[in-house]
């Protein structure tokens, strides 16, 4: 997996209202002494009323006073002397014929407990259509509390609200689908951001730049202000418009950029536009930092947003736009770079009254024929008998003792497309933020000559969500296991089973989709952890005064757990002392994000760059941190540098040999592990070019050059049930094939880029791979959720499952610091150094996995305890002095470890 530095694509508008479209239910909103609930836009709850936005709207009902409505506290998100524009889409549900007033109001609670009200705007609305309420407000100073609310109709009249935007910017009409908001503000570090001073402070990056008030015979005009600029006569993709911002950006501060852009010319209607930083640091080394990208068109202005952070102290910083093919102009109307606003922490998701383990599938056992099921497409559903009576194993591990299945199954025939199969609507049965486990038995018709992919899928408002997959190559029943989670309120959710080729019959039995109580499994995991990660220890004290030690107080403290907990790091990170401090304190292993990969160490043939890897390795050595070598080769063609791809087979073989000799000789004995050929289940560049034996050759040669390193296979989606190419069964066969060719495979890498982890699904993969007797490592673990509490729960599931399994011998996180991870919403530490809920959970688990004990020396001159493997200190307190000793508890045998301490 590749790590992208300082990459964050943000698509939300600059709206200070949280949950503005009620996609998160009533999260952040509160009905004011009345009742409120969110209605799906297509639900038909009110006859003739659908959401203006197409998704959701809120109904405020049981109103007994005209001032009752819907409110949100915006205190922390408003600034003094800023002007805010309010836009809301509203209507009423009323027995009255005349229009009813709806008001936008601010409630201002002062430090002395007095309260003022500030009128913002008013609209006369009816039950016939959505109306647009607008207004503006500005506060000279911020009081103790600022509450925004909508109110106004007469008592008994229900108030309907579709969306609310409060922005320090121009907001289009509520019917506009793409809201673009933009403000310069005092904090903008870009000079002349709207080109009102021509091209002052701007220049072309390898091309010409011009300023316009219109283009294309007046068809292109500015969205904001009077002018826009074009980067024209571009001959390279990197050509664009740039500004030197040296001295106006500070290190270790997060900045967000907002640019209004489009493209023009060369018959290109859509192209990638990127915002990039070019940074020169004092030693003259250059860095290119990707900030944001999007698909821009020649039809409309669009908003490009992203974030970046500088770790070191640069001598020069230039920000520029690039990306479209040569000959296509980049147009930019406005450009903003300012210190990024710190988002408020996400609240814990509500999980009251959750019926964990309750199947949301209706008539799963087919006791009522096909009731609840319907055919997706023009296929035929019938009920057959003869399917398994037991739940699939992964479901049994989650649900425990359970009623046997009926033995009935759905037979799907007359399938003319691979997506055809049985389906069921489950919209109203799902809750946000819950992790749902998915399982079923599946089988295909006889006479099929090639393996078929069977998939449990969900259609969530038209988007495909993978619930689990299995490859079925015979006429046996196969288990499908997977999971999913929904974090935004959907209007329609359908589950369906699909996948085999057209004409292939499909059989489905025992479909289960249930919210899983992931914490309930932790008790079992803690018992397993105690069994495999701890050891009984006898401290045996000796010395001239041993007979007098009876009753002496002993205090044992573990200073470090010896289990490998590591993280990905990158060269740019180590210029940030805050990053380094957190890393060396909380991790004992490291892996480099890109700096050891071939495309980094030799971007052009013969142009070798080991400086970045050397500096990272020096940091690790100084702090006694062991390092994994990632990776010698990468089998996925898109990751292979162009000069390597262009070689003929003889020259490619020579280049492969040179890469092995150069890397393994230079770093002999310094990397404990190597990922030899990354992601061989998902790519085949070297094998296609050089034959099947090249893979085992890479392993054998690496072993000859550095016998001290453990050589790993490494791949993704092994543990989550969502990818048939890398199922545990496929991975096992892959490893066996390598071993049969003489490859000294020493370890199994499971990357661990996972969504919605469920313990039994992960554990099942460990169990299957464990039969090979090789150490298993999570090599690139990350989890992602915008809600920090959900992210923390996901991370805890992964860490506990790995730490409790005897085949797992190490865990590497694929980074921990915001803006320096390959996935968004995966960080444990936010960009400017604050530890979030996921980071706190990691630290809590690290603390839980340290042993402490105290007591008194017994009459045998011994003190006994059970503790985790690792380093310890023991303090012995006698009448006259304190004695401090150190010792190590290794994994050893099942028998107690006897440690003799000479006093």
Q: In short, what is this structure?
A:
Helix content is about 15%, strand content about 35%. It contains 13 helices and 46 strands.
Descriptive overview:
The chain has 903 residues and is of the alpha+beta class. The protein has 5 domains: 30-168, Galactose-binding domain-like (Jelly Rolls), CATH 2.60.120; 203-339, Jelly Rolls, CATH 2.60.120.260; 374-516, Galactose-binding domain-like (Jelly Rolls, Sandwich), CATH 2.60.120; 529-558 and 852-902, Immunoglobulin-like (Sandwich), CATH 2.60.40.10; 566-784 and 802-849, TIM Barrel. The protein has 13 helices and 46 strands. The strands form 9 sheets. It has an 8-stranded parallel beta barrel with strand order 33-34-35-36-37-38-40-41, surrounded by 5 helices. The protein has a 5-stranded antiparallel β-sheet with strand order 1-4-9-6-7, with no helix packed on it. A 5-stranded antiparallel β-sheet has the order 2-3-10-5-8, with no helix packed on it. Helix 1 packs across helix 11 (759-770), helix 2 crosses helix 12 (788-803) and helix 12 packs parallel to helix 13 (837-848).
Helix content: 10-25%
> What's the domain count?
5
CATH architecture name of the largest domain:
Alpha-Beta Barrel
**CATH top level of the largest domain?**
Alpha Beta
Sheet with the most strands? 8 strands, parallel, barrel
Oligomeric state of shown chains: single chain
Number of strands: 46
CATH homology-level superfamily of the largest domain:
Glycosidases
Q: Name the overall outline.
A: globular
What would you call the structural class? alpha+beta
Pfam families: CBM_4_9, Glyco_hydro_10
Family: Belongs to the glycosyl hydrolase 10 (cellulase F) family.
Protein name: Glycoside hydrolase
InterPro entries: CenC_carb-bd, Galactose-bd-like_sf, GH, GH10, GH10_dom
């Amino acid at each position: 997996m590749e790590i992208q530095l300082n990459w964050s694509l943000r698509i939300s508008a600059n709206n200070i209202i949280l949950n503005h479209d009620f996609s998160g239910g009533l999260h952040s909103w509160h009905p004011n002494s009345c009742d409120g609930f969110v209605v799906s836009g297509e639900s038909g709850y009110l006859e003739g009323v659908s959401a203006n936005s197409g998704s959701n709207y809120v109904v405020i009902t049981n109103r007994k006073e005209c001032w009752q409505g819907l409110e949100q506290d915006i205190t922390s998100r408003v600034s003094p002397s800023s002007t805010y524009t309010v836009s809301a889409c509203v209507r009423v549900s009323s027995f009255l014929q005349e229009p009813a007033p709806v008001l936008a109001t601010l409630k201002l609670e002062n430090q002395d407990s007095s309260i003022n009200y500030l009128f913002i705007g008013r609209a006369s609305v009816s039950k016939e259509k959505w109306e647009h309420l607008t207004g503006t407000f500005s506060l000279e100073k911020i009081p103790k509390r600022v509450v925004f609310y909508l109110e106004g109709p007469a008592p008994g009249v229900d108030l309907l609200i579709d969306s609310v935007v409060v922005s320090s910017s121009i907001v289009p009409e509520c019917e506009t689908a793409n809201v673009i908001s933009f403000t310069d503000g005092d904090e903008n570090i870009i000079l002349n951001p709207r080109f009102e001073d021509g091209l002052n402070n701007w220049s072309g990056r390898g091309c010409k730049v011009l300023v316009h008030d219109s283009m294309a015979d007046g068809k292109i005009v500015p969205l904001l202000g009077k002018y826009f600029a074009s980067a024209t006569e571009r001959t390279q993709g990197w050509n664009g418009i740039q500004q030197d911002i040296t001295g106006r950006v500070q290190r270790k501060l997060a900045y967000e950029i907002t640019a209004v852009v489009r493209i023009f010319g060369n018959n290109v209607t859509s192209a990638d536009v990127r915002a990039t930083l070019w940074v020169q640091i004092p030693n003259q080394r250059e860095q290119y930092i990707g900030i944001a990208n999007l698909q821009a068109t020649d039809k409309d202005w669009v908003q490009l947003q992203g974030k970046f952070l500088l770790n070191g102290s640069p001598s020069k910083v230039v920000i520029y736009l690039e990306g479209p093919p040569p000959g296509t102009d980049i147009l930019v109307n406005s450009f903003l770079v300012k210190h990024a606003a710190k988002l408020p922490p996400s609240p814990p998701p509500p999980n009251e009254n959750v019926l964990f383990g309750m199947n949301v599938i209706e008539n799963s056992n087919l006791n009522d024929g096909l009731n609840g099921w319907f055919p997706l497409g023009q296929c035929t559903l019938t009920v057959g008998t003869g399917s398994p009576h037991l739940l699939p194993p992964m479901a049994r591990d989650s649900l425990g003792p359970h009623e046997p299945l009926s033995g009935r199954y759905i037979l799907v025939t007359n399938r003319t497309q691979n997506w055809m199969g049985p389906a069921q609507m489950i919209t109203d049965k799902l809750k946000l933020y819950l992790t749902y486990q998915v399982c079923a038995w599946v089988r295909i018709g006889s006479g099929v000559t090639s393996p078929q992919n069977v998939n449990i899928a969900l259609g969530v408002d038209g988007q495909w969500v993978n619930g689990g997959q299995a490859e079925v190559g015979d006429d046996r029943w196969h288990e499908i296991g997977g999971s999913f989670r929904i974090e935004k309120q959907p209007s329609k959710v359908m589950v369906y089973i699909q996948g085999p080729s057209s004409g292939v019959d499909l059989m489905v039995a025992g479909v289960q989709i249930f919210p899983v109580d992931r914490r309930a499994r932790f008790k079992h995991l803690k018992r397993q952890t105690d069994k495999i990660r701890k050891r009984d220890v006898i401290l045996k004290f000796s010395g001239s005064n041993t007979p007098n030690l009876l009753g002496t107080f002993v205090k044992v403290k573990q200073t470090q757990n010896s289990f490998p907990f590591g993280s990905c790091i990158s060269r740019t990170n180590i210029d940030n002392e805050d990053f380094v401090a957190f890393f060396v304190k909380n991790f004992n292993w490291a892996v480099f994000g890109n700096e050891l990969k071939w495309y980094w160490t030799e971007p052009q043939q013969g142009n070798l760059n080991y400086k970045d890897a050397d500096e990272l390795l020096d940091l690790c050595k100084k702090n006694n941190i062991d390092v994994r070598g990632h990776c010698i080769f990468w089998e996925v063609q898109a990751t292979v540098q162009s000069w390597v791809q262009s070689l003929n087979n003889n020259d490619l073989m020579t280049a492969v040999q040179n890469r092995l000799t150069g890397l393994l000789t230079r770093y002999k004995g310094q990397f404990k592990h190597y990922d030899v050929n990354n992601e061989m289940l998902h790519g085949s560049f070297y094998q296609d070019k050089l034959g099947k034996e090249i893979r085992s050759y890479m392993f054998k040669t690496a072993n000859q050059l550095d016998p001290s390193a453990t050589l790993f296979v490494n791949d993704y989606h092994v543990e989550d049930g969502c990818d048939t190419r890398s199922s545990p069964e496929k991975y096992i066969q892959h490893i066996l094939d390598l071993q049969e060719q003489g490859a000294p495979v020493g370890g199994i890498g499971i990357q661990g880029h996972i969504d919605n982890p469920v313990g039994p699904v992960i554990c099942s993969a460990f169990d299957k791979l464990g039969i090979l007797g090789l150490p298993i490592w999570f090599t690139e673990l990350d989890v992602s959720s915008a809600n920090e509490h959900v992210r923390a729960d996901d991370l805890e599931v992964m860490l506990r499952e790995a730490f409790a399994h005897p085949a797992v011998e190490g865990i590497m996180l694929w980074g921990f610091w915001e803006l320096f991870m390959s996935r968004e919403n995966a960080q444990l530490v936010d960009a400017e150094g604050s530890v979030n809920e996921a980071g706190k959970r990691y630290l809590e688990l690290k603390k839980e996995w340290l042993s402490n004990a105290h007591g008194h020396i017994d009459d045998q001159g011994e003190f006994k305890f059970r503790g985790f493997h690792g380093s310890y200190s023991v303090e012995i307190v006698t009448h006259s002095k304190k004695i401090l000793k150190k010792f190590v508890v290794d994994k050893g045998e099942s028998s107690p470890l006897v440690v003799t301490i000479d006093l």
